[in-house]
Amino acid sequence: xxxxxxxxxxxxxRLWSDLAGNDQLPDWYELTExxxxxxxxxxxxxxxxxxxxxxxxxxxxxxxxxxxxAAVLTTTAGIRVPDVIWMPESDWQKISSPEHxxxxxxxxxxxxxxxxxxxxxNHKTQAYLASGVQEVILIGLTGTIExxxxxxxxxxSRFNLNLTLPSQxxx
Length: 171
Fold this sequence. Notes:
It is a single chain. The protein has 171 residues and is α+β, with helices and mostly antiparallel strands. It has four helices and ten strands. It has helices spanning 9-20, 45-62, 89-92, 118-130; strands spanning 29-31, 37-39, 65-68, 72-73, 79-80, 84-87, 107-111, 135-139, 145-149, 152-154. The model has no long low-confidence stretch (mean pLDDT 89).
């Protein structure tokens, strides 16, 4: 049986920084907790439009700042790039450099794509929560919304969000 070591946060951060300087790599990748590169296809226009709509709604309803595709260092799944993250302005001011990896933003959103496997989405969701993320919002292929907290799936957001998803973006 082959055992792969889990890299420390420092090792993952160094590897992430090294990869960022590699012009041969596409812009859409993540790193597992073992430092393995996970390549992702370029998001479709529909996916990007939906992420933008969600980010705008998060900012309008919560203040602070929401961004699309920011790298998050998790404690159990390496460096992952959720579709949208939100943090209050006070948390953004604590970031020391442009290359800084985020750790436990209060809220992350994953917009599911046809290629997503339930096992992988569950692994990422649990990793976000184990790292201190308070809420993971999962947007399903048909526009369903799940609010996931440490104690499971909820019908409502702990942040009192009321997301309105454009129906034309779902088939």
